[in-house]
Amino acid sequence: MAGPSSAHVALRAATARRHEEVDSRFGGFDLSDRAGYAAFLTAHARALPAVERALEGASGLPALRPRTDLLRQDLAALGEALPQPLGLPLPADQAEAFGYAYVIEGSRLGGAMLARSVPESLPRAYLSAAHLAGEWRAFSTALDSAAQAGGGAWLDRATAAADRVFALYAHAANPT
To answer: How many C-beta atoms lie closer than 10 Å to residue 150's C-beta?
Structure first.
């Protein structure tokens, strides 16, 4: 693989359809409206805690900063409880763990942009939890190194795992 972000680029390309589906489903929530925003956060709360729990103890990943507590705080400020998360199997190996982490770390990038759409009167700790300086680069570098060491089959497993998490988010946004 060439270039420091080639695994990231490959994952983005391979999961583009699922990613677009998730963006489309979450795009239906009105973040400027208290009820719409609460529904948006509730949908995220059906997925994110399951992914973060699945990644607890996963080896070979760079340090990840969990956001479930921030999501819980924002929901509580809106008078909502954290819902029961959907089920997600534990990653079978490092490739799957990176696939899971790729989705939630990528969503952190999008969350920072979405936070601008939320009125200042509403809680925004979850969406505002952007990467600290160098975190995304460190994640991308670790992803690329692991993918390069693991080869094509590794990247295929990471892609399948990322697709699994995108499907989880899609279901969380529209569980019917």
So the answer is: 18
Question: Distance between terminal CA atoms of the chain?
Answer: 40
Distance of alpha carbon 18 from alpha carbon 1, whole angstroms: 23
CA contacts within 13 A on the Cβ side of 155: 19
How many residues are recorded in the chain?
A: 176
DSSP-derived secondary structure for 69-94? HHHHHHHHHTT-PPPPPPP-PPPSSH
d(CA 127, CA 170): 18
Q: Are 26 and 114 in contact (CB under 8 A)?
A: no
Longest dimension (CA), the chain: 49
Closest CA to 107 of 145, 64, 154: 64
Q: Per-residue pLDDT tens for 94-131?
A: 999 999 999 999 999 889 889 999 999 999 999 999 99
Residues 1-56: tens digit of each pLDDT: 344 448 989 999 999 999 999 999 999 999 999 999 999 999 999 999 999 999 99
